[in-house]
Specification:
Blueprint: H1 5-13, H2 15-27, H3 38-54, E1 58-62, E2 66-69, E3 72-75, E4 79-84, E5 92-98, E6 118-120, E7 125-127, H4 135-150, E8 158-164, H5 174-183, E9 195-198, E10 210-215, E11 217-226, E12 232-233, H6 234-237, H7 244-253, H8 276-284, H9 289-296, H10 306-314, E13 318-325, E14 336-337, E15 340-349, H11 355-373, E16 378-379, E17 383-388, E18 391-392, H12 398-411, E19 416-420, H13 426-434, E20 437-440, E21 456-458, H14 459-478
Parallel strand pairs: 5-8, 5-9, 9-20, 10-19
Antiparallel strand pairs: 1-4, 2-3, 4-8, 6-7, 7-21, 10-18, 11-15, 11-16, 11-17, 12-14, 13-15
Bound molecules: ligand BES and manganese (II) ion (2 copies).
């Protein structure tokens, strides 16, 4: 089934309206990690639900209950399930995305208001929180629906939807929702799903389209060390008492080396060294040292060898230190000995590692390091505050071939096939619960700055991405679902 020119033309001619859609989406301060903004998150859910409904999708909002943060009982924003099309002769594609975003304030260093999409026609950039992660991509799906609905074009596949608004905050309740919905079989929203498509990642660089077949998992930890019953004056008590901050810095400094090597015993257990063929695959990706430097804004890479850098991001675990809570964090030179401090760090995991397995290793190691300090401070039990499984799949099946073919149609290039360093924990849940192929098909570029200041999405990626997601549906419809091969795939 060829992609109707009418669909592609609609995306082009309605460009300004489609940008307005993203502008409306970005205006919702749907920061799932900020307890004071829960109403805004739910407002975003209601708006997005309305968008889906107005283009013919039958939806339900699912109540995911409550969570407790610092003794405060908070409502978890609803998830949305949706369906359109019920033709037994068509394939059924399930789409996942998230409506929540990371926090953002102009004072963090944004050049513009983060929740006002700044559309720069001259540079082609649209700057705003969520523009690429993940409001741009989920709006691109709505653009596909609108283009069909408005022109009375029949969708080439049945579609099912699962959107959440807690992805940036541990996806509370989502695994259970996906599992219970999958267990309903024909009676649920995931009836007869043939494949899953998630657009919540990015091209590797700024020029080559990408499809992604792996994600790292995550294990997030908090280590708390306490001592005095209250903060102390450092003039009176310095060199008199053991200091929790000194102990914590000592512990944290022994988690990872400057060159990125993780020091936790067993941190690399189960992860095989790459074969020479695998290293060649990394070398074949369109990526340079300059791409790294431009994306991070400086000459700070751990190696000059691009394959080494790519493997660091995609196929090895990593450990990053995130911050310390309870330390004197204002800008003044407060001469205090903090009484109780909490260090925050996380590990990215790769198959076959699991958050639980890593938790055991981290607890044992932190305890060992702390004991060696011979301090009288107290180490509170190490907490793993969130965890997500890594995921990897076969990137040669028909779902990936459909994505390759769609990319070639829209961009005139075959996509790089990548694994990603970030995490979308529900990906593995979909794969396991439904037993079908899961594909990541990104809209944005590698320099979009997700989670950072001045997060952006290029207009050309938003428009191209809308065409890509729509075209992918036609390729899925057309492909023989038994084919397995590489006619479109670069990767061996
Ligand atoms: N869209 C990202 C996931 C991602 C990041 C994919 C980088 C590819 C490259 C997602 O919104 C995200 O930020 N996930 C969190 C998950 C965590 C909160 C469990 C992450 O990776 O930190
Ligand atoms: Mn995301
Ligand atoms: Mn994110």
């Amino acid at each position: 089934m060829a992609v109707p020119q009418q669909f592609l033309d609609y995306i082009d001619t309605k460009q300004d309206d489609l940008i307005d859609r993203l502008k409306e989406a970005v205006a919702y301060k749907s920061v799932s990690g900020d307890p004071t903004l829960r109403d805004d998150v739910q407002a975003m859910v209601n708006w997005f639900d309305g968008q889906l409904q107005s283009y013919g999708v039958e939806t339900t909002q699912v109540d995911l209950g409550y969570q407790t943060i610092d003794d405060q009982k908070l409502k978890v924003p609803n998830a949305i399930l949706g369906r359109i099309g019920n033709d037994p002769n068509k394939k059924t594609v399930l789409v996942y995305g998230h409506m929540d975003v990371q926090p953002a304030a102009k004072s963090d260093g944004w050049n513009t208001e983060p929740f006002t999409l700044d559309v720069q026609k001259d540079t082609g950039k649209m700057i705003g929180r969520g523009s690429t992660d993940d409001k741009g991509p989920i709006c691109a799906w709505v653009n596909v629906l609108e283009a069909h609905y408005a022109q009375q074009l029949e969708l080439p596949v049945n579609m099912r939807f699962c959107f959440e608004a807690m992805e940036e905050s541990g996806s509370i309740g989502l695994d259970e929702l996906v599992q219970s919905e999958a267990a309903k079989g024909d009676q649920g929203y995931f009836d007869n799903v043939d494949c899953v498509c998630i657009s919540d990642n990015y091209w590797l660089n700024t020029r080559t389209p990408t499809v992604t077949f792996g994600l790292r998992g995550i294990a997030y930890f908090e280590v708390t060390i306490s001592g005095p019953s209250a903060d102390l004056h450092s003039g009176m008590w310095g060199d008199v008492v053991y200091e929790p901050m000194t102990d914590l810095i000592n512990v944290m400094s022994q988690l990872v080396r400057t060159d990125g090597r993780i020091l936790i015993d067993g941190a690399y257990d189960g992860v095989d060294d790459p074969t020479p063929q695998e290293v060649d695959e990394y070398r074949s990706l369109d990526y340079s040292l300059q791409d790294v430097q431009e994306a991070v804004g400086g000459d700070i890479a751990l190696s000059d060898d691009v394959a080494t850098l790519l493997m660091g991001r995609m196929r090895w675990p990593s450990l990053s230190l995130h911050g310390i809570r309870g330390a004197s964090s204002d800008d003044t030179s407060k001469t205090v000995i903090p009484a109780r401090v909490t260090g925050k760090f996380s590990l990215r995991l790769v198959p076959p590692q699991t958050p639980e397995g890593m938790q055991e290793k981290v607890i044992a190691y932190v305890q060992k390091v702390f004991n060696n300090l011979n301090t009288k401070s107290t180490l509170e039990p190490v907490k793993m505050t969130s965890g997500g499984m890594p995921w990897i799949t076969d990137d040669t099946d028909w779902n990936y071939q459909a994505a390759d073919a769609a990319t070639y149609d829209v961009y005139g290039l075959l996509p790089d096939h990548t694994r990603e360093g970030g995490s979308i924990p529900v990906t593995l849940t979909f794969a396991d619960a439904l037993g079908v192929s899961v594909l990541l098909l990104p809209v944005g570029r590698g320099d979009d700055g997700a989670h950072s200041t001045n997060e952006k999405l290029d207009i050309s990626n938003y428009i191209g991405g809308s065409k890509l997601l729509g075209t992918y549906l036609y390729k899925v419809a057309a492909i023989d679902a038994t084919t397995k091969g590489k006619q479109f795939s670069k990767r061996k």
